[in-house]
Amino acid sequence: MSETSYPLHTALSLAASGVPVLPLRRGKVPFGNCRTCAGNACGGRPNMKHAGPCRCPGVCHAWAAATTEPAVIASPLWAAAWRQAVCVGYHPGGTGLTVVDLDNADAIEWAHGALPATRAVPTTRGEHWIYRGTMRSVNGVRDGVDIKSTMSYARWLGRGTGTLTALPNAVRALAVKEPSTVRPAPHAVAVPARSGDGECRHRTPVYLERGIAMAEQRIAEARSAVHTTVYRTFLAVLSTHGRCGCLTDTHVARLFAAAQSKGETARHCADAWTNARTALGM
């Protein structure tokens, strides 16, 4: 019997070894927020110690719901989620790890030539290479390559083979490079120049990062009407950040990647983005 046959049993075993876990539903995505936390009404993006500033006991706030507390994992509030769960997720950054998600054979071949060997876990289409150490999570650093560490989750697929090695500078360097233009290739964000000499408040990292992170979460939590959710989220982002020159191709790529993780095609993403800009007269 595989290690992932019974998600709750696997989750409790992992938690006992210090790995923060959470249930993942169909599509291998977290469960949506409860009514109190919907739309981040409880205070917004949570920190890394508990499931939101409201200390919500439910499976809320995606990666931040991950916990090592057996009383929470096996609680009645989580029971319904485990009954629907298709697999176990975990927070790599919460256990001091970074996962390099290699999504295809080409990505694996690249990694063998560019990265030091470490523990490898087979996935459906590729491999997870796991390193000891944490960094910020970034999607699409290369075609078929994502980095999952802090403020992110990964699917638990077993312990893998090989010895954990320290997170190399070669992986850290990927986070500062331009994301792949293959998944997806976002349209350039042509916006009017800012007027006035004052500093744009959106250029503060916290304000802009919070807006993009909340948009990613809103898309990830869509249970139905994904097309509509993606369009409305793009519209909200553009209405707030689209006229001052803050948005970059990196931000657009993150939004497109979030939409594609819900089954949207690159064409649908591009169309939704264009339609949102048109609606705002941009």
> How many strands in all?
10
**In terms of per-residue confidence, which ranges show pLDDT below 50 for 5 or more consecutive residues?**
45-52, 177-199
As a percent range, the share of helical residues equals: 25-40%
* Terminal residue distance: 56 Å
Radius of gyration: 19 Å
Overall shape: it is globular
- One letter per element, helices H and strands E, the order comes to HEEHHEEHEEEEEEHHHHH
Residue fraction in strands = 5-15%
Kindly report the average pLDDT value. 81
Summarize the SSE layout with pairings:
Blueprint: H1 7-16, E1 21-25, E2 29-30, H2 70-73, H3 76-84, E3 87-90, E4 97-102, H4 105-114, E5 119-122, E6 127-132, E7 138-142, E8 145-148, E9 154-155, E10 165-166, H5 169-174, H6 205-220, H7 226-241, H8 249-260, H9 266-279
Parallel strand pairs: 6-10
Antiparallel strand pairs: 1-2, 1-3, 3-9, 4-6, 4-8, 5-6, 7-8
Helix pairs in contact: 6-7, 6-8, 7-9
Structure described in brief:
By secondary structure, this protein is α+β, with helices and mostly antiparallel strands. The protein is built from 9 helices and 10 strands.
Describe this structure in words.
This protein is α+β, with helices and mostly antiparallel strands and 282 residues long. It has helices spanning 7-16, 70-73, 76-84, 105-114, 169-174, 205-220, 226-241, 249-260, 266-279; strands at residues 21-25, 29-30, 87-90, 97-102, 119-122, 127-132, 138-142, 145-148, 154-155, 165-166. Strands 4, 5, 6, 7, 8 and 10 form a six-stranded mixed sheet that branches. Strands 2-1-3-9 form a four-stranded antiparallel sheet. A hairpin with a 3-residue loop joins β1 (21-25) and β2 (29-30). α6 (205-220) runs antiparallel to α7 (226-241) and α7 (226-241) crosses α9 (266-279). The radius of gyration is 19 Å and the shape is globular. 40% of the residues are buried.
